[in-house]
Structures are given as C-alpha cells and as structure tokens.
Amino acid sequence: MKRKEFDGIGLWQFDRLSDEPSIRHFVSDRNSNGHGKPFTLSFSSTPDKEEVRQNRKLLARAMKVADDQLYFPSQVHLTRIVHVTPESKPADLLETDALITAHKDVCIAVMSADCVPILLYDKAQQVIAAIHSGWRGTVAKILERTLHEMQRQYGTRGRDVLAAIGPSVSQDAYEVGSEVIEAVNASFGTNQDLFIAGDAGKARLDLWKANAIQLKSFGVPDVNIEIAGLCTVTDNNHFFSARKGDAGRFAGGISLMS
What we know:
Elements (H helix, E strand, L loop, with lengths): L1 E5 L2 E5 L1 H4 L4 E6 L20 H15 L6 E2 L9 E3 L14 E4 L5 E6 L3 E7 L4 E7 L1 H5 L2 H13 L6 E5 L9 E2 L1 H11 L6 E3 L5 E3 L1 H11 L7 E3 L22 E7 L2
Parallel strand pairs: 4-7, 5-6, 10-14
Antiparallel strand pairs: 1-2, 2-3, 3-15, 6-9, 7-15, 8-9, 8-10, 11-13, 12-13
C-alpha cells in the first residue's frame, strides 16, 4: 500500500487496485485531513457530528462521487449483505456488514478500528464489494458469503476477482481466548495454522490468513490477493484501534467510475 494525496486529503491505496482504470478506492488515515484533528468517519465516535459530515464530504470529493453517493452500512458483526443502488437510503443499510454494487459513481465503504476491511473488484462483470470482517464475521465467513452473492447475482468467478485485505489488528497484536479459538476451529478446522499458541489457553489469531483462505476457496488466485500488512495496533499513528482505546473509525471504500 501507498499513501497518496487526493484533493487535499491523504488516503492509502492498494497497488493492484491502483492499476485498474475503471475504479477508485481508498483506505483513510486518522490524519487524512492533515489538520491535526482525527479524521474519523463514524457519527458514533464523536459528539461533533458536523465534523464527521465534513470528513465524509471531503472523502466523497476525493472519490469523485456526490455526497449522497458515499455509502456506509450500520455494522453489527453479522452477515447481512446489501446491494446498493443510487437510490439506497441509510435505513436500507442497517445491521449490515457487506455492500455490493454494479452501479457507477457509487462509493461503498466499511469502517474499522481493528476489524478487517476488505475490497473486491470483479473485472469481468464490473462489480465491486466492501466487507467488514471482525472475528465474528470471519468465523461466519462473510467474505465467502459475499463472493457467492456476487456469483448468484452477477456471475462472478474467482479468477476475475481482485481482492484487497486492509489494515487491521495483526496476529502479533491479537491475542484471543477459548471462545474465539473454539469458534474459529469449528469454522475453519484445526489444520489451517491460524493460531500461535500463548499462555493460559490463549492464542494469537491471524485474521488476514483466515480471510485469504475464504478467497482462495472461491477460486481467487494468490496473485490477485493483496494484504496490506499494516496493523492498527502497531501502526496506530495512521489507523484507529479500539484495542488502543480509540473512539474514531477509519474506512476502506471502492467505486466504479463512469
């Protein structure tokens, strides 16, 4: 990933997705506006709602979409997937953790502060998706469910998908207890090497690998999968982390260009 300037705000971009002329995409930085104030995109993260509105307007301008065509779901760590159109309303995106669209000039995005933001682009069918996947979403395989929904609706094939796994808590910084260990093993099996054992029955979980497994199981080639490799805990100077006590939320998003 590289950080670039877009209309006065700093945003991160994936190398592979940056090569695609038909899309625009971003991962925001807690210092995206460069003015010293945290660039949070969540209304629940601050009492200053106008500040969030202005941040979203800056982001929409950078993505070259209308203010009302930048869509964020109301995330709840479940598996609801919504197809977004230019007429979609905020109420349509309640309790939703994945968005799909084939409409141009519509930017779909998910917020994070340790969970994994994932962007998908089907080059053949010109369809995009944005997914929020914490440990619960990963266990429920929301990424794989989203790919199958793209297949059902648009005929998406794994070989045509570019996938970008964004900044999130890394395995080195993500110690979990028995509840999570048991849930992950029940979902993925015990032979995927997703854990590094720790003390007192705890272990460190690799969310990046768990989501890459879902991509590969759908047939996405290794060469089409880019993992940011940036940790919200250790790279906390760039990305919000709930584990570090941050209230703010950064985002990852993608749009098809007209």
